Amino acid sequence: MEFSMTAKFHISCVYFLVLLSVATSKLNPCDFPAIFNFGASNSDTGGFSAALRSLKSPFGETYFHRPAGRFSDGRIILDFIAESYGLPYVSAYLDSLGTNFSHGANLATGGSTILPPGQNPLSPFYLHLQYSQFMNFILKTQYVRQRGGIFATLMPQQEYFSKALYTFDIGQNDLTTAIFGNMTIEQVKASVPDIVKSFSKNVKNIYNLGARSFWIHNTGPLGCFSSFLTKFPSAEKDEYGCAKAYNEAAQYFNQKLKESLAQFRIEFLDAAITYVDIYSAKLSLFQDPKKYGFERPHVACCGYGGEYNFNNNGGYCGTTINVNGTNILVGSCKNPSDRILWDGIHYTEAANKVVFDKISSGAFSDPPVPLNMTCHRSFTKN
Ligand SMILES: *[C@@H]1O[C@H](CO)[C@@H](O)[C@H](O)[C@H]1NC(C)=O
Ligand SMILES: *[C@@H]1O[C@H](CO)[C@@H](O)[C@H](O)[C@H]1NC(C)=O
Ligand SMILES: *[C@@H]1O[C@H](CO)[C@@H](O)[C@H](O)[C@H]1NC(C)=O
Ligand SMILES: *[C@@H]1O[C@H](CO)[C@@H](O)[C@H](O)[C@H]1NC(C)=O
């Protein structure tokens, strides 16, 4: 959108006044009645398992004591977010069994991309499809509520849609698919503006459905994963053992995402948009694993084979593989809580908790808003 100079000047004045008034008044912590999440495996609470292929034991072993649709041994960051607001864990929209949407819904599925996926995608539910499903969800849940009784107790109230927290964690698969599909890093970077444009379009669509509070994770340090280090053994590494080029691609995406959200904030003065640099929060674990009680930072806890206990061609966590005529269940390491990476791509509950504690303080947010103040456009202590 193009603004004239006067319009731009006017908007920055309004923006300034909003910031000023927010900074000088005493703010109450937010009281979100619901959480709606869009994303991929990092925030999936059962969509992939319900709709595509269910994750098998030992997924979920640490906390849920059974596979619970999370790509982890236990809770993921979205679970900690829900807990911090005293809300129930967010049910997956695609799960038809035992779900309760009274305080939110999760549209994320493992493997989801921002852009429409190519052939044989991990998940067909890319971001625009998640948005369409959500649009349908808003309409249909209200019809169901009107039926009353037990049906009503399973559905969110109409007013929750404007009052809820909207969380996002997506983009990792757009980059991974491109990199594993043999694109050069330059080609990957060249595709980033389109990916970010599509992301931002979806956020605007969701804003137009009434969303006002956004908590948006950027994408993590891909180059530190067992999967990338196994796939590209000769990649140049940084001093922490992470493959440089892939982390740079992630940072490039993050930079563009941050710029795009800054623009969004100027255009939509009644939206509170928090960009969360989860990349840096996660990277700090790989930079100083001992500080957080972690060992073997790049080695998958649950996996099979090679230097990183990971195999890109089979032997994924929870599967059964045949090794020299013997069936082996690809299982967990002894103490998942000592590890950062669960399956070589996703994090253990222990790592998720450390990352959650870091990001919820606001230290990784732009603007520097802690999680419990995410409904406000800006936040200054006292
Ligand atoms: C759904 O969850 C809400 C909030 O936790 C609860 O009050 C309601 O009874 C639940 N509905 C059912 C059918 O369990
Ligand atoms: C990428 O390159 C490798 C080695 O040249 C090849 O085996 C593989 O099929 C290629 N992958 C794709 C998706 O093109
Ligand atoms: C499988 O058998 C081959 C040939 O006997 C042997 O070289 C290899 O080490 C065996 N692999 C494992 C994992 O035991
Ligand atoms: C909000 O979060 C901050 C940072 O995590 C914390 O210091 C503060 O006590 C929280 N405030 C309330 C009212 O929970």
Automatic annotation (TrEMBL):
Cited Gene3D superfamilies: SGNH hydrolase
Record flagged with keyword Coiled coil: no
Any one Pfam family match given in the protein's UniProt record, by short name: Lipase_GDSL
Keywords: Glycoprotein, Hydrolase, Signal
Keyword Glycoprotein in annotation: yes
InterPro entries reported for this sequence: GDSL (IPR001087), SGNH_hydro_sf (IPR036514), SGNH_plant_lipase-like (IPR035669)
GO molecular function: hydrolase activity, acting on ester bonds
Entry-linked PANTHER family: GDSL ESTERASE_LIPASE ENOD8, ZINC FINGER FYVE DOMAIN CONTAINING PROTEIN
Family as reported in the entry's similarity comment: Belongs to the 'GDSL' lipolytic enzyme family.
Name listed for the protein in its UniProt record: Putative alpha-L-fucosidase
Species whose genome carries this gene: Lupinus albus (White lupine)
